[in-house]
Amino acid sequence: MFESLSDRLTGALKDLRGKGRLSEADIDATAREIRLALLEADVALPVVRAFISRVKERAKGAEVSEALNPAQQVVKIVDAELTAILGGEARRIEFAKQPPTVIMLAGLQGAGKTTLAGKLAYWLKGQGHTPLLVACDLQRPGAVDQLRIVGERAGVQTFAPHPGTSVGGDGAEIGVQEPVSVAQRGLAHARAKMHDVVIVDTAGRLGIDEEMMAQARGIRDAVQPHETFFVLDAMIGQDAVVTAEAFREGVGFTGVVLTKLDGDARGGAALSVRELTGTPIMFASDGEKLEDFDVFHPERMSSRILGMGDVLSLIEQAETVFDAKEAEKTAAKIGSGELTLEDFLDQMMMIRKMGPIGNLLGMLPGGKDMKDAVGDIDEKHLDRIQAIIRGMTPEERADPKIINGSRRQRIANGSGVTVTDVNQLVDRFFEARKMMSRMAGQMGM
Ligand code: GDP
């Protein structure tokens, strides 16, 4: 997502580099490039217009002419304005003073509501909450089971009507009322079982229709949600604007969640929705796994689009997997040249927990170039390294010097690789250990 936009914007801003003073013509030319880049990324026209006029106004003002480095100043302005259209500061969920906090999800079918329900529940659980999922999508076949499955994976409970039985057990016909009744009973269940958050999954249609809106309104009125999230598939391009507007009028929402940011769409929806609806983007999903989900940070997203990297997100991810004490121990071992293959395996597994290496590189400033230069990092190769180390005995991992010819043969057989692969790994490990220890010495670690 945003790749071509990112390329074009950084390209446009690169042209300014090295210029001591910026003429009005320079600024106009850059603004034109930025405008084209945004339009090509499917950003809605009114948003593009407003954006360009703000950037131009600021760039022509004192902010830039009096700056030591005018080009850098323009980048800062574009960054600030991009952050602003993405919503400024991240907004957090407003939890009810009297639990449970009710969060309703609305959006088109396929937008990713059910998947999101699981991700959000998982995330909330990680923050110490006790969410309950309530299955009110009784339209799409399988939606109830799907929610139950994501709930199980997230380790949270799901309140759902049993398949094939009517909701009340009183033989009531399946009708518009049914999802409302499930919602109400789900809420009552949450109160009784002390769940502090209730996430209500609702039905969507492939297109907007009045019946769906009426049903969503019915659920909304019955459970009085504290937050209603409009779930928007970032891949749908220009249609996003119409859909968002229909939901704003039909049900209303307090926040937007963008899904499928991992796709290769141009990203205009993401850039337009906040400005057009006046509602903040609160979370973003970028994959099908439970962990592919995070609070949406406008400033970080902007930095990422402008190729300035997203070091903050990287640090946060690192903090979730690395333990400070352990890291210190490892650093000491590196310094004294005592690093073992066991340590190496631990480190590698921790880094890989943070996601595919390519994604990590993409978060570094200039990381996109690095990612392009390195090409596709072969995750299979990393798997192979892990397999080889796992094929070693604890003694071998602790003291790789004892790995002689016959041990190498055994390890190769055991991990399904050739002896050459094992040799390479062991040799490189010794080289790397020497180099790291020397570097640590130089840096005075
Ligand atoms: P719903 O109809 O709104 O409940 O949508 P679903 O939750 O069933 O999602 C529709 C499809 O999109 C499923 O195949 C999901 O796995 C997929 N999906 C949801 N979120 C994401 C995401 O962030 N990235 C990707 N790549 N796929 C997603």
From TrEMBL:
GO terms for cellular component: signal recognition particle. Residues 280-293 form the SRP54-type proteins GTP-binding domain. The chain holds residues 1 to 445 of 529 of the full protein. Keywords: Cytoplasm, GTP-binding, Hydrolase, Nucleotide-binding, Ribonucleoprotein, RNA-binding, Signal recognition particle. Its EC number is 3.6.5.4. Part of the signal recognition particle protein translocation system, which is composed of SRP and FtsY. Belongs to the GTP-binding SRP family. SRP54 subfamily. One of its GO terms (molecular function) is GTP binding. The gene is ffh. It is found in: Cytoplasm. Composed of three domains: the N-terminal N domain, which is responsible for interactions with the ribosome, the central G domain, which binds GTP, and the C-terminal M domain, which binds the RNA and the signal sequence of the RNC. Involved in targeting and insertion of nascent membrane proteins into the cytoplasmic membrane. Binds to the hydrophobic signal sequence of the ribosome-nascent chain (RNC) as it emerges from the ribosomes. The SRP-RNC complex is then targeted to the cytoplasmic membrane where it interacts with the SRP receptor FtsY. The keyword Ribonucleoprotein applies. This is Signal recognition particle protein. One of its GO terms (biological process) is SRP-dependent cotranslational protein targeting to membrane. It is an enzyme of class 3 (hydrolase).
